[in-house]
UniProtKB/TrEMBL annotation:
Catalytic activity: Endohydrolysis of (1->4)-alpha-D-glucosidic linkages in polysaccharides containing three or more (1->4)-alpha-linked D-glucose units
Upper classification of the organism: Bacteria, Pseudomonadati, Pseudomonadota, Betaproteobacteria, Burkholderiales
Protein name according to UniProt: Alpha-amylase
UniProt keyword rRNA-binding present: no
One Pfam family, short name: Alpha-amylase
Length: 574
């Protein structure tokens, strides 16, 4: 495990209780208070770029693509400029987001294909045609460079989704790569480790021969493409320099490592979210981490004023169905165990949270804290309630959206907000099939007017009126997010229940000179005044802030008093 160095990262103005103006400038952000940043406590916003925000309608259909896909299976117009615009106007900062995970921006197959659910295009980014270029539907290399720069100016890190397992499906114009590069059969049967690795995930999804050490030439399709684009000589020169420097054989996986790490070397992205981890040999990920780390250090050295800190390159793994209860040892197909943390990963996406979230607060919080303070100490998991390919989200009908936010944002570990969680975006679009149901366009209109949430249940927090609005829900997420971003102990602290009724707990973190403590009370009854015991966490005379109401108070006789109009209290030093 690489050492985890605490670094100071810019936190948004909203953490200081200031309003964040539209189009906040880098100068304004730089004036904000700096708080310690830990990937283990990160609030990661995961978005499908094509489905988030359309800022440039001129790039909606590129490469001759048509608007002829099955429902929610074609490009819908979201682009890199749309993400940049939302960073500029403070949307992510107000949510307390300090990392954005974007789907692969690389050029996708040009045509559509039918996998049994209707004609589909590679809007999601996982059907690669060329790993070295931004897909024109999303924008340009200039747009991607600006995205990273603007995110960094706002104290936000970028997680790039990368694929080592496969290329895009074969179509009439997207021809299959040579046999020394990919296999086209058999389809995975998942009965053994090899039954998940040396196979294709689905029919017509060529699987890269990541186990091979045999030198191969460039696919002729790329040679022809690069010559047409006038960059063949440059790409070959860079590849020659890479293989000379590393001494790697020109095997398929090393080409991909070069292409993936170029995004770090050129733009300064801060980490990888790695796709289909269990479908590639574990040792490959360790090699990728080494190359990515070297590229990141090279970029930081060349751009000392642009880096956010000195933390090492970060990688989180999507090993499908990994539960936090597995600890360090993921249960592979066939029953074998693999320690992905020992093979380059700092974090694993936790597929069990969306079911664990049905637990009561203390059971959930204490269980997760125990995992992270013991078996997983020094590492972390990425918790989520919904995602782009998980058909069993927590609260699929979005009838418990406030509870969803509270549990996700206050559970130990890092968190993944899937785009639209914060606005109860629908997860079961009737006209769509399969995972497309989970991938509707972000509906910004729900925030433009004070529209009531579409709830059939009255299970809403006392904080809000009987008919809470979408703005109320977003505000709830924002308050929790700002609290997390300001206090590393929320995600990484030692958890202890202080009171069962009313439910109150504390979290404490102390490491490398950083000391942070918080006290949280949940599901409080409405009252004229809430009196909360905070001793011995906070001392008499200390000023603490309730991040939910925004009020600051002085501790007196080991207690604080706050107006009783909210059901939640989030206490920490301002």
């Amino acid at each position: 495990m690489q050492s985890k160095t605490l670094n100071k990262a810019v936190i948004c103005l909203s953490l200081l209780g200031l309003s964040l103006a539209q189009n906040a400038t880098a100068t304004e952000i730089a004036k904000a208070n700096k708080k310690p940043f830990l990937w283990e406590n990160a609030t990661v916003y995961f978005l499908l770029t094509d489905r988030f925000h359309n800022a440039d309608k001129k790039n909606d259909l590129a490469y001759g693509r048509q608007a002829d896909a099955a429902p929610l299976r074609g490009f819908m117009g979201g682009d890199l400029q749309g993400v940049i615009a939302k960073i500029h106007d403070g949307y992510f900062s107000r949510l307390g987001v300090n990392a954005i995970w974007i789907t692969p921006p690389v050029e996708q197959i040009h045509e559509g294909t039918d996998e049994g659910t209707g004609k589909s295009y590679g809007f999601h980014g996982y059907w690669t045609k060329d790993f070295t270029k931004v897909d024109a539907n999303l924008g340009s290399e200039k747009d991607f460079k600006k995205l990273v720069e603007v995110a960094h100016q706002h104290g936000i890190r970028i997680l790039l989704d990368v694929v080592m397992n496969h290329i895009g499906p074969v179509t009439a114009s997207d021809t299959v790569w040579p046999a020394e590069w990919v296999r086209t059969e058999p389809t995975c049967d998942y009965k053994t480790a090899d039954g998940a690795i040396k196979c294709t995930l689905v029919k017509n999804l060529p699987d890269i021969l990541t186990e091979s050490d045999k030198p191969v030439d460039l696919p002729p399709q790329l040679v022809q493409k690069w010559k047409q684009e006038g960059r063949y000589e440059r790409e070959v020169k860079e590849l020659d320099a890479y293989f000379w420097r590393t001494g790697f054989p020109r095997a398929p996986r090393y080409y991909l490592m070069k292409w993936h790490t170029d995004w770090i070397r050129k733009y300064g992205i801060d980490g990888f979210r790695v796709d289909t981890v269990k479908h590639v040999e574990a040792s490959v990920w360790k090699e990728l981490k080494q190359e990515a780390s070297a590229a990141f250090e090279e970029w930081k050295k060349a751009n000392p004023k642009k880096k956010l800190g000195d933390d090492p390159f970060f990688m989180t793994a999507e090993a499908y169905n990994y539960p936090i209860s597995d600890g360090l040892q993921f249960r592979m197909d066939g029953g074998s165990r693999i320690n992905y943390y020992a093979n380059g990963f700092d974090s694993m996406i936790n597929f069990s949270f969306r079911s664990d979230a049905h637990l009561e607060y203390e059971t959930l919080f204490s269980r997760y804290a125990n995992y992270l303070q013991n078996d997983l100490k020094g590492y972390s998991v990425l918790n989520y309630i919904s995602s782009h390919d998980d058909g069993s989200p927590f609260d699929p009908a979005r009838q418990r959206p406030f509870e969803s936010a509270t549990k996700l944002m206050l559970t130990p570990g890092s968190v993944q907000i899937y785009y639209g969680d914060e606005t109860a975006r629908l997860l079961n679009i009737a006209e769509a099939q399969g995972d497309a149901k989970l991938r509707s366009m972000m509906d910004w209109s729900v925030l433009q007017k004070d529209r009531p949430l579409a709830l059939q249940t009255k299970q809403v927090p006392h904080t809000y009126k009987d008919s809470p609005t979408y703005r109320d829900l977003l505000t709830h997420w924002q308050k929790l997010g700002q609290f997390r971003a300001a206090h590393v102990s929320v995600g990484m602290g030692v958890h202890q229940q202080l009171s069962a009724s009313p439910y109150i707990f504390k979290r404490s973190y102390q490491k490398d000179g950083v000391r942070d403590q918080v006290v949280v009370a949940l599901d409080l009854p409405l009252a004229k005044t809430h009196t909360i015991t905070v001793a011995p966490v906070f001392q008499d005379g200390e000023r603490v802030k309730d991040y939910y109401s925004g009020q600051s108070v002085i501790v007196q006789s080991g207690k604080v008093e706050l107006p009783g109009k909210h059901a939640i209290i989030l206490l920490g030093k301002p």
